[in-house]
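job 3f2a | input accepted
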Amino acid sequence: MKTKHKRSFDLLSGYDYYCPGTGGLFGLFGLLLAGACIGNLAVLLLQRFAGAHIAATYGTLIAYPIQFLPAMLYAAAKSNPFGGQDCVKVDEGRFSPIGFARLAMMVVPVTWAAAIICEPSGLLLPEMPDFLKRMMESLTDGPLWVSILCTSIFAPFFEEWLCRGMILRGMLRKVHPAWAIIISAIFFAIIHFNPWQGIPAFALGCLFGLVYWKTGSLKLTILMHAVNNLTSVILSRIPKFENCEYLFQAIDNNVIFVMIYLLSVALTVLFCIKMLKTDFTK
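job 3f2a | predicted structure (282 res):
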């Protein structure tokens, strides 16, 4: 009698047997760059055969997933149950004693708070170049569904898979958790390819890394990433915020902004302390 094996449709479990070290980190980064080149070529072909308007409007839908495809194929090939590496789940999910639902409700406001804390970092940098501003605006100026799909679904899934599911998970086996979180956050900042996004990405990456280290849940970090990006997309469509680079520019009362900022700092600190003091189990 033949034994039936259940087929897994979990997209993440196929990477459980690959934990990249330092060499794997650089290898994945190189493959990401190669994927970006292939994605840009695909957009050029779309422009050649479908026109500039179609390419500008929908090109990101094609280029963005392609950018991560070489790294994902490589990691999947390296994840071999018979290759000698232990199984370390990409999405383990240790939620007790708080529970997934309560954690999800906790990380949403903390993500907003952390984003507010990061705002002053932009004031320390020179003004963003015009070409980069146009590139950033192009991500939210198109059809709303395209913006949401690219920034709030594609980006959280692919970037969290790479930065937390691969890089942080691999580094946690090699170095102290604090260093592993910092390394993965630096990687997260670098793949944004500009300091105006990179500095906030590093800070948020540390927060995401803390959550992933303690809970082993990629679902939570994807949620946090999606909340941050979706909030940016929504605010860019609101007239009061669309021409503001920073929240304080949309709030006329400086006292109110300072209160919001201090509350954000307090909320983020209390959350981090709670995470550090809690021993999470399945």
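job 3f2a | The CA atoms of residues 140 and 232 lie 9 Å apart.
job 3f2a | closed
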